[in-house]
Design goal:
Blueprint (H helix, E strand, L loop, with lengths): L1 H25 L3 H27 L3 H30 L12 H8 L1
Length: 110
């Protein structure tokens, strides 16, 4: 039963990774693409690692999968924020369809 649940998590993770890769190709600007890549890593890869943990069990490789999950959950959103902030400061424009630019609003307030 645990193996089936693990395979379900791996399948869900693969689907998230697939849709994240499609988002990298299809979305219009760097900020939207960065959001798709972050979702791909946090939801997709962590789901695959959790499924691997469920299948393997609490042995050394299972614990490594859990540690990798924790590392990804802590670092992926922070790095995406840093990259998007750096891109905005470098002058990379949003696509024409964007309606809110919080970084620009923060600059105008200060």
């Amino acid at each position: 039963m645990v193996d089936i649940i693990g395979l379900i998590f791996i399948t869900i993770g693969l689907a998230f990774d697939l849709f994240g890769c499609l988002g990298l190709v299809r979305l219009p600007d760097v900020y939207n693409r960065l959001q798709a890549a972050t979702k791909c890593v946090t939801l997709g890869t962590c789901s695959i690692l959790f499924g691997t943990f469920l299948i393997v069990g609490p042995v050394a490789s299972g614990m490594k999968a859990l540690l990798c999950m924790v590392f990804l959950l802590l670092t992926a959103p922070v790095s995406a924020h840093a990259i998007s902030r750096g891109a905005h400061k470098a002058g990379v424009r949003l696509c024409e369809g964007s309606v809110i630019d919080k970084y620009e609003e923060d600059k105008q307030i200060k």
